[in-house]
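A.,

Following up on our hallway conversation. Structure tokens first:
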């Protein structure tokens, strides 16, 4: 047929499911290259993403609702990729879809109320860290600012963490007087920058206490530590420490984790008395390479101080390489030249550094080799000329091994059949056949049977026997003898007279279903 057939196979990165889009391709020719589209999340099913081939048969459309937050969380930009494989000839194409954020989430506080106990002796400038709001949207659609309702005693200050997240604290600007105002009720509003703008609100309830005029103070503003992934539950990471010069209950400090994302809250915990931060859930380097959190130290009078903790996660070699078959061709003709491609595989390892560096090899001694022309992709090719008559099929085992200590390996076996070509001629068991016949024989009597063999298979090995044209005493040889084309049995066509003919010499040819043949003299 005049057209080329396209085989489109998906491979999505970052763990995304491939059911997000439908890829409709029916076309005659494709040009290899990088293809990239940008689409907003929440598009309706059937919405057009792009025309891949600039024809009416290469349209990329949405198959189901795309939720950027579900795909990528707070990672930006958010994209997923897949490959298209064109076979005959074999070509690889890389397609990337970038999902753009829309403002479909308001900022949300974890609790509806923030309870603060603040001493009336708190100094002007005393700071009180507030719970943060979370907005799964990103960029301008994410959390932008906090707003505090108007009051006489506190002003709002906003801060930005190194990861870009925002938190707020209230700062005392006018001395509290419990006897005049025993409590205050404020509202903290978190707003994003979307259009239309979305917001979330939390109540701040302040109870004014007596005579605790010193807040706790951490001995470090930033604590740095490391933790190995897969660390056992209860493993100690770091100990934070704060002191309070007050005495009695006003100097008694408790520790807590504040302003922490929900995923970190399930993985880390702190002893409220000792300040020991430890592992409480599964630490996975492939999910989070670093944790940043704030620890609050609070005395019994309600005064607080906070310190940042930065924890680096150390990778261990806990993921074996994975081998995915992009394309594999079997059988392959025995006359294929060395370097013929028989398959393409994709090899990945989720670990990092040496733990994620993968080497591929063919396990057994076989006439094949593996080479890499593109990162994470390997091509299986023939290394020598194949001979079906010597070996008709191969089990090719590919081994992918990472560079971790100890290394982890994965194997994948491919069964390859070698198809026959007519590269062998029929061969007679004898070069010359001799037979005797008494004169005055009956016509049709069997004289001798010739046999030839052909190591090829199927039609290439199907042998037929033919009597080669020649003359015997001026008459065609076919008037004297005949040969059965299938069995090779030679018969006398007529009766012979010894006084007239003492010897018959003729040639029988053996021919296979291909193009080569062999002959023998009689």
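Then the amino acids I'd put at each of the 522 positions:
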């Amino acid at each position: 047929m005049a057209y080329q057939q396209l085989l489109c196979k998906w491979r999505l990165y970052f763990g995304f499911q491939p059911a997000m889009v439908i890829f409709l391709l029916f076309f005659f020719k494709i040009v290899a290259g990088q293809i990239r589209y940008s689409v907003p999340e929440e598009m309706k099913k059937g919405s057009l993403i792009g025309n891949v081939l600039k024809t009416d048969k290469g349209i990329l459309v949405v198959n189901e609702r795309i939720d950027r937050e579900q795909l990528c969380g707070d990672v930006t930009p958010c994209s997923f990729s897949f490959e298209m494989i064109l076979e005959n000839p074999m070509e690889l194409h890389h397609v990337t879809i970038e999902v753009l954020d829309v403002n479909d989430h308001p900022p949300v506080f974890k609790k509806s109320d923030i309870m603060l106990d603040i001493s009336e002796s708190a100094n002007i400038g005393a700071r009180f860290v507030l719970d943060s709001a979370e907005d799964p949207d990103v960029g301008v659609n994410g959390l932008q600012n906090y707003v505090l309702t108007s009051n006489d005693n506190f002003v709002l200050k906003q801060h930005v963490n190194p990861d870009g997240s925002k938190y707020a604290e209230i700062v005392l600007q006018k001395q509290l007087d419990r006897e005049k105002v025993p409590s205050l009720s404020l509202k903290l509003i978190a707003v994003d920058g979307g259009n239309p703008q979305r917001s979330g609100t939390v109540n701040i309830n302040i109870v004014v206490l007596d005579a605790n005029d010193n807040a706790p103070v951490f001995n470090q503003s930033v604590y740095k530590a490391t933790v190995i992934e897969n660390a056992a539950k209860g493993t100690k990471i770091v100990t934070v420490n704060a002191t309070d010069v007050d005495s009695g209950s006003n100097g008694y400090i408790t520790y807590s984790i504040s302003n922490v994302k929900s995923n970190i809250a399930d993985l880390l915990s702190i002893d409220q008395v000792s300040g020991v931060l430890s592992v409480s859930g599964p630490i996975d380097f492939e999910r989070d390479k670093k944790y940043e959190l704030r620890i609050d130290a609070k005395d019994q009078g309600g005064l607080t101080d906070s310190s940042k903790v930065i924890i680096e996660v150390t990778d261990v070699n806990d993921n074996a390489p994975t081998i995915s078959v992009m394309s594999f061709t079997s059988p392959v003709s025995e006359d294929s030249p060395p370097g013929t491609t028989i398959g393409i595989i994709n090899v990945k390892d989720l670990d990092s550094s040496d733990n994620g560096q993968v080497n591929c090899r063919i396990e057994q001694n076989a006439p094949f080799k593996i080479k890499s022309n593109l990162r994470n992709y390997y091509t299986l090719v023939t290394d020598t000329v194949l001979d079906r008559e010597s070996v008709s099929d191969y089990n090719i085992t590919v081994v992918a091994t990472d560079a971790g200590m100890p290394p982890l390996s994965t194997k994948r076996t491919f069964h390859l059949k070698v198809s026959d070509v007519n590269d062998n001629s029929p061969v007679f068991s004898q070069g010359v056949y001799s037979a005797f016949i008494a004169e005055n024989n009956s016509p049709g009597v069997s004289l001798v049977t010739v046999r030839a063999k052909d190591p090829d298979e199927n039609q290439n090995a199907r042998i037929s026997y033919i009597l080669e044209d020649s003359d015997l005493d001026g008459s065609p040889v076919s008037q004297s003898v005949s040969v059965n084309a299938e069995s090779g049995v030679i018969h006398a066509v007529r009766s012979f007279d010894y006084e007239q003919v003492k010897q018959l010499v003729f040639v029988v040819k053996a021919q296979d279903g291909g193009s080569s043949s062999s002959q023998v003299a009689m």
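The helical segments are 68-72, 262-265. Curious whether your intuition agrees with the design.

B.
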